[in-house]
Structure formats: structure tokens, C-alpha cells
Amino acid sequence: MTDQEKIILSFIFKRSGKSNLKESDIYLPLSLELGWFSLQQAKEFVKKCIQHKNLEVTDGLLSPSFDIDTIVIPTGFYPVIQKEKNEMSDNKQPPKQSVAEYIEHITKRSGKTNEEIKKEIQEQQKEKNIIYEVAALSIANIYGVDSSQYYGIIEKSIFTENE
Fold this sequence. Notes:
- By secondary structure, this protein is mainly alpha-helical.
- 58% of the residues lie in helices and 5% in strands.
- It folds into two domains: 2-88, Arc Repressor Mutant, subunit A, CATH 1.10.10; 99-161, no CATH class.
- The longest helix has 15 residues, at 2-16.
């Protein structure tokens, strides 16, 4: 897992253009922007990187303990960590849900109408040049809506549309 940790950390640090980051500058992009982890998984990932000595803590800031320029980030890289956690729960039947039901979930918890949420998602999609499902996650986050039960549906939707 340390090779994958190094790839993920290299990606985040290269993306930021900084050599030192606050902990939140690592786990928030991993969770909210990239959607690679839930927020809790991203926080745990940072802690594991510190334990594995891939991150060093200096004056409250984190920096990689290795040269990020020597790490090659594969095209289309997606971490396996999240899938490992999902595989543990594969014994249970996933709920029959869809992206449309997820949008309804956001609507109910945000107090907005379905049309308002869809419009905000489309605006976010265009503004940030991201796919619809990721924009929906972003909007849900803005309204403080827990999306964790829909991650599998969203992931499936993203990868089946792109095949």
C-alpha cells in the first residue's frame, strides 16, 4: 500500500504546487474534489501515511518524506483503497438506487426543489468542468447532505457511462 500512498500523495502535492500542506488540504481534495474516499476514509488515509512515515509533520504542516518528482502517476489513476473497503461489504445486496434517487435525496434534505437542485448541479458541472455525478456530490456537500449511502451507485454510474 505504501507505493499507492506515495502516488496519491505525489498527486495531491503536485496538484497543489506546494511542498507543505495542512492536513485538511490533503483529505478534503481526496474526498470532496476527487471523490476517491469518503471524508472519514480520507482522514484515516492521512493518518496512515503519517504512521507509515510517508508524511512528515513539521510545525503543524505535512510534507512528503520522499521526492514526489520521482513518482510516476499512471494515467487514469484511481486508488484501490476505497474498493477494498467496498469489497468487504459485497456480501450484502446493494440497495436498488439510482442517480435520480440520489438527486431526490439531496432535494429532500436541502429544502430546495428538484428543479433548483438539478439547475445547481448543472451550473456546478459547467463551472468546474466536472461530470454530473461529481457535481451532485459537490452540491450535496454544500448543503451538508450525507451522501455516503450513494457512493456505490454514483461510482457505478460514472464507470458504466464511460465504458
